[in-house]
Structure prediction request, 321 residues.
Amino acid sequence: MGIAGLSIRQGLIGLAALLFLTDLYLILQYAPTASEALGLQVQRIFYFHVPSALLGMIAFAVAALASIVYLAKRARKWDNIAWASAEVGTLFFTVAIGTGAIWAKPVWQTWWVWDVNGTLTFMLWLVFISYLIVRSYAPTVERGSRWAAVVAIFGAAAVPFVYMAADWWEGLHTERITGPGAGGSMEGEMFLTLMFSLVTFLVLFIALVAERAAQRGIEESIEEIRREVSA
Amino acid sequence: MKISTISRRARIAITVTLVAILALPSTALAATSTQEIPGNGNLGFLLVGEIIVWAGFFAYTFYMSRKTNDLRREIEDLRALLKAVPPAGN
Prediction:
């Protein structure tokens, strides 16, 4: 337990909520309106789209790393982290895909473009949807964990390609403006707002993964006690 | 008793946060002045985007809180079950 009876996880969720409110203020008031080519007001979606896409990819990488450790050590803790990270990552990626489509409609006059970037993003999303399906339909928890670990490792291998797709292949997607070797640039206020959004989404991601992984741990303990009681 | 106090506090915090989240965009959007940009500059799309983001995170938080409630119920069931089982050695 932390301060005033709140656990660290609850504190993180509270912090994420506060950061989100500040972030909304920055996005809607502080950041300047973009040029007509970028969609004017709708460009503000970008401050949700980029962090959720980036955190989605990080989540899948975390799921793959935790899965590798789980396969090596067979400790349930790592499987719980992988599961939580993949689940939260799928949520973030869904938000990224949804906001991207909404921005694309008024700017590109279409909801979706099947260029390399769009197709790879959609495939990565499908892989992690399959990860969750594999877990749900596996005959035993153990087998589900093993099969899902393989899916996570396979899926995460596509992450660098999705991240670099806008640079490596021609398409409608705008240039990357964050990360090593990024070609794009932004005005100071826009960049500051984006950085704040990234921190906000990072805190939210950590809070949700920690909460969900802890929940999985409790679920497993209950299942174990049930087995002992019924034996 | 402690759990219910925390959950009531959490419920109040969530309600206040949600009201603020819903109120802030409307005031901020009003302040960005629709007269500055002809045709509102795609404000409708921005609002739909915002709703998708919040609906997504709200739905997931709701799903997690339901899971937590299920877990609490299961713990209560187990406690009742353990009370009913006679201690080992008797």
Q: What stands out?
A: Residues 3-230 of chain A form one domain. The two ends of chain A are 34 Å apart (CA to CA). The first helix of chain A runs from residue 8 to 30.
